[in-house]
Each structure stands twice: as C-alpha cells, then as structure tokens.
Amino acid sequence: MSLEFRHIAHAYGPVRALEDVSFVAPAGEITCLLGASGCGKSTLLGLAAGMLAVQQGEILLGGDELAAPGRNPPPEARPVGLVFQDGALFPHMTLAQNVAFGLPRERRGEANTWLARVGLGGMGTRYPHELSGGQQQRAALARAMAPHPEVLLMDEPFASVDIVLRRALRRECRILLREAGSTVVLVTHDPAEALDIGDRIAVMEAGRIVQFGTPQELHEAPATAAVGAIFGGAQVIRGRHREEGLDTVFGLWPFASLVGALPEGEALDLLVQADRLVPVPDPRGCRVRDVHPLGARLRVLLETGTGEAITCETALPVDPDKTYSVIPDPESVRAFART
Fold it and tell me: Which domains does the chain have, with CATH numbers?
C-alpha cells in the first residue's frame, strides 16, 4: 500500500520542524528521505510510526486515513515495521526469540526462516552480543519484516555499520525489500546511500521537500543548485549575470546565454563539474592551494584572496607558483537564480 503525507506541519514548541510537507511513498517501492540533521526527516518518520502525534495535515495508508489531528493510533496499532540505527534487539533474547517476539504464537516457528532470508541461517540460538554490527542489523530487519507489515520505516539503518560492509548490506537489503514487496520509507543523510537503495528520493531542507523524484530525475534535472551538487558531484559557486557574460570570482565566463531570460545583474548560483573546468594562467587569478595527482589527471584546488575555493580536475600541467583563472565547458554549466 502507498503511504501518503498531506500538508504535514509540525513544531516542537516555538521551533518549526516541518512546514507543509506533501508526498507519496508508492506501494512496493523504497522512498528515501534525504537531508542534513535537523531538516525534519526523522520527525516525518516518527509521525508515520505513531511515536509523534500529527498536529497538522494527515497521513494516509492505501488511501485510508492512518493519522490526523485528534486521531493518532499508537505504534502497536499501526501496520508498520520499524528498523532503527542501532537495531534495538533485545539483548537477553536469542536471535530467533527476537524475531518471534512480534509474531502470533502459531507463527513463531517462522523465525529461523526469516533469519535465513537475511543470511543468518543457523544462527537463531545466538545472542545479539555475539554478532557483528552488520549481522545485528540483518536480524533487526528480519524481526521488522516477519509480521508482514504494510509499511517498513527505517531510520538511518546502516549508520552504525562500517563503510565497506554498509555498501554490501544496503544492496542486499534493497533486493530483499523489493522481493518482499514492502513499501519502505528510509531516512538517511548520505546521498550515496539514497542513490544506492532508493527508488525515489525526497530531498529535504529546513522542514520542507525541495525536490521529490527518481534518482535519475534528480541527477538530470535538479530543482536547485544544492540538489545538483548533491547528486551530480558538482560544485556551487556564486556569480552574477552581466551583459558580457557570467561574472565570478574565478573569472569572467562569456556564456550569458546560459541564464536564459534572467535579467542582467541577477545573482546566480552556478553548478559546475570539476572535470569540465580548465585552469588558465592569469596574473590576476587565484593562487594554487593544492595539487594532487589522480593517475593521468591532476586535482587542483584554487583559492581567491578572500577565501573562495574551486576544484578542477585536469590533464594540463599546473605550476603551483603561478596564479590561474578558470574557464568551464559551457555545456556543463547550470545557472540558478540565487534564493
């Protein structure tokens, strides 16, 4: 079933955590809530789970109201499963007992089957402290999925796992979740994780969703320079639209046509790719802060006298004792009106 948020707003006293948030997590897909700490993503998850009461707006499951002001069923009365950052396994129970805990008596024999599905076959008699972090998260996933919840809510589920294991675990987790047909909402602050596991991504800033779409849509058509920088591996620099081109602290770029109908003098955020920038010797340019070899190319960090910096990746020789301006490939530059 789909999980829909309609015009959700939430406050902690005078602090506004969410402001008019609306989106649909489609049935059978993995939807990631991506953003920095404090942007409101965990608050959304808490509202869906029933750990927080809905103050404004409504949450629907399969088109039916799940929660709204004055109607906030507790977590145990909602058809949702929860997976937290630390797994939250009961330390005094074996893995099989942990998985069986939320099942009716007649289904508790399924615990070992679920453990086998997450790669923990034959480990049902072990206790959580006998497992690695990745194994504990697998057990937590088995426990959450065993009751066949309509929706699975996951809050930074891989954050406590080391980075090498994390990549493998989230890809295995994606396959398992898709095979189960679960509707999943997963909170993360890691863009790579959102791209790796998500079918759709909601990018959040300051309690709002700034863009919602598939990974491909966010990569190819970012709504803001910040979204483009997250998913395109690009840099955001400030510029201004002049008659003769784009005026930046790294040089004048003669590409005024890139800004379309924006008026002259408009302040811009310019999205640029490091490997599409060419450093050009210029006595009035930027100093070379660092040069780092990347095989056949160099990664060059240039810095202005006032501290602005830009990174180039180039096959051209760069003299650390000279100063440079920067010229981009015009087809690689995206311009956004600064908000």
Answer: 3-230 (3.40.50.300), 234-337 (2.40.50.140)
Q: What is the DSSP string of 206-222?
A: TTEEEEEE-HHHHHHS-
> CB count, 10 Å around CB of 179?
9
| Tens-digit pLDDT profile for residues 63-108 | 999 999 999 999 889 988 888 776 678 889 999 999 998 788 888 8
Contacts (Cβ under 8 Å, ≥6 apart) of 13? none
Tell me the backbone φ, ψ of residue 141, rounded to 5 degrees.
-65, -45
Burial bucket for residue 206 (CB in 10 Å: 0-12, 13-18, 19+): middle
Dihedral pair phi/psi, residue 328, rounded to 5°: -90, 160
The token pair at 268 is 């811009």
CA distance 225 to 177: 32
pTM score of the predicted model: 0.82
Q: Which amino acid is at 33?
A: L
Spatial strand order of the sheet with 15-25 comes to 15-25, 3-12, 56-61, 64-67
12 Cβ partners below 8 Å, 6+ apart? none
On whether the CB atoms of residues 186 and 157 are closer than 8 A, the answer is yes
**CA torsion 231→161→111→175, rounded to 10°?**
30
**Rounded CA separation 183/2 (Å):** 7
Nearest Cα residue to 61 out of 42, 77, 43: 77
Handedness of CA 91, 97, 98, 103 (dihedral sign): negative
The sign of the torsion formed by the CA atoms of 103, 106, 111, 113 equals: negative
Q: Annotate 147-202 with DSSP letters as a single string.
A: T--SEEEEESTTTTS-HHHHHHHHHHHHHHHHHHT-EEEEEES-HHHHHHH-SEEE
Distance of alpha carbon 219 from alpha carbon 239, whole angstroms: 22
Mean pLDDT score, 134-150: 83
Distance CA(68)–CA(57), nearest Å, equals: 6
Token pair belonging to 200:
């759709």
